[in-house]
Amino acid sequence: MDIQVAGENALILYFGSAPGPEVSDRVQAATLAAQQALGSDLIDLIPSYASLLVLFDPLRCDAFSVRQRLRAALADSTTAESDEGRTVVLPAYYATESGPDLARLAEHAGLSVDEVIEIHSQTAYRVYAIGFAPGFAYLGEVDPRIAAPRLDTPRKRVPRGAVAIADRQTAVYPAVSPGGWNLIGLCPTRLFDPHAEPTMPVSVGDTVRFEPVSRERFLELGGELGEEAR
């Protein structure tokens, strides 16, 4: 582990050079340990693929003392036990109607549309990071058979709830936005709601599974069609 100063009231902890389940477990363990070690001196914790950003109250402590407390907490194996996270099931309406890139991705992979849907929905994905937009969870890793590069030209408008693939990652767009990922379906679950508690249904360290649903069930769950990607 490497700890670096990231601002007047921030430290960043690095746990590896590449993402993976083991590194993600260490990030999660450090997140719990930092919460326990810093308590009310803590402003925020931002976990990512292989790092953890620690924001502390500069009126209550300094970088040197925070660094010492973090090292002590992480050296204590009982304090740094990892939370395995929850398993969150997200419904997904997979179809050429809801996923404008589904047929093309299947053709590129040499698979049928049904095979792509089966592969994507039978994989358990780790939430490695949340970023780009509130509620945009980077999920990995996609089965290499259906991995696909980002679009050469990003779309100006991707609908809320779009289930997408880019390289070995998958995600659900939490709001209408530009985007360059391959769209294979729609999810009716809101990935970010500022009025809900919690505001997001998933957190870093959770496991996400997609459950295929019919068009009718998708609409019953509050999904919206007609927001075609442009």
Which SSEs are present, and which pair or pack?
Elements: E1 2-7, E2 10-14, H1 21-38, E3 42-47, E4 51-56, H2 63-75, E5 87-94, H3 102-109, H4 113-121, E6 125-130, E7 137-140, E8 155-158, E9 162-166, E10 169-172, E11 177-179, E12 182-186, E13 207-212, H5 215-220
Parallel strand pairs: 5-13
Antiparallel strand pairs: 1-2, 2-4, 3-4, 5-12, 6-7, 6-13, 7-10, 8-11, 9-10, 9-12
Helix pairs in contact: 1-2
CATH architecture of the largest domain: Beta Barrel
**What best-fitting shape do the alpha-carbon axes yield?**
elongated
- For CATH, the homologous superfamily of the largest domain is named as Cyclophilin-like
Largest beta sheet: strand ordering: 5-12-9-10-7-6-13
Query: What is the strand tally?
Result: 13
Distance between the termini: 44 Å
CATH topology of the largest domain: Cyclophilin
Give the SSE string: EEHEEHEHHEEEEEEEEH
Look at the structure and give the mean pLDDT.
91
Helix/strand-derived category reads alpha+beta
Using the coordinates above, name the CATH class of the largest domain. Mainly Beta
Report the total helices. 5
Largest sheet data? 7 strands, mixed, barrel
- C-alpha-based Rg, rounded: 19 Å
Strand content: 25-35%
Helix content: 10-25%
* Poorly predicted runs of 5 or more residues: 77-81
Structurally, the number of domains stands at 2
